[in-house]
Specification:
- 86% of the residues lie in helices and 0% in strands.
Length: 214
């Protein structure tokens, strides 16, 4: 009995279910999956139960995403296109802003070279992440109650775009070793878009809870 209770579903799979499933259905769906997972783990072993849980996670997410697209195809497609356009139009903008701000401190840059380079380096690294998070928030707000479907789909589109560019550019290492920082930056920016959706969803949930408690 202790061993059965110690078994847990795959953390990433459980997180994905909680991420995509609407709040009003999250508890029931996650509870049903967890109960079935424990039953299978006790009968067929943890490895079999984990594989089953991953299959059910993929099926559940695919079903929910498909249902959301069928319910409001134009809303979701429009918000995704808007997010894509915002990122395309704002390409390189964070770096330009960081450089412009540092140029206003030019009299001090020669005396504080290390600090100047530190702000320049971290600004160029963090700026695109902040931009992507803001894009995710904008897309989530525009998508209304379908914020996670819109932002997750947008993240996957950017991920597929990055993968296709890498396949086109890739060559034998170490000639193209510089592509690794590019890959990390692109993947991080895409994931942060989903974070923007999470922020908007949690904010809406908190506001709904406060309204219902009054």
């Amino acid at each position: 009995m202790r061993q059965a209770f110690a078994i847990r579903p795959p953390l990433i799979a459980a997180w994905l279910v909680d991420l995509i499933v609407p709040r009003e259905h999250a508890e029931s769906i996650s509870g049903d999956l967890h109960e079935e997972f424990l039953d299978l783990a006790s009968k067929s072993g943890p490895a079999f139960a984990c594989r089953w849980y991953w299959r059910q996670t993929v099926k559940t997410i695919a079903h929910l995403v498909g249902a959301e697209f069928r319910a409001a195809p134009w809303t979701i497609a429009g918000t995704i296109l808007m997010g894509y356009a915002l990122r395309w139009l704002g390409s390189g903008l964070p770096e330009k802003v960081v450089v412009a701000l540092l140029r206003t401190q030019r009299p001090y840059s020669s005396a504080h070279v290390d600090a100047y380079m530190l702000f320049l380096t971290w600004g160029i690294l963090i700026g695109p992440l902040i931009q992507s998070m803001l894009i995710g928030c904008i897309v989530a707000i525009a998508a209304k109650r379908r914020e996670m479907v819109a932002t997750t789909t947008l993240c996957l589109i950017f991920g597929a775009s990055t993968a296709s560019r890498l396949l086109f550019w890739a060559g034998p290492l170490p000639e193209n070793a510089y592509l690794l920082p590019f890959l990390i930056r692109q993947v991080s920016s895409s994931i942060v878009i989903v974070l923007g959706g999470v922020i908007v969803r949690e904010s809406r949930s908190a506001m709904a809870r406060r309204s219902s408690s009054r």
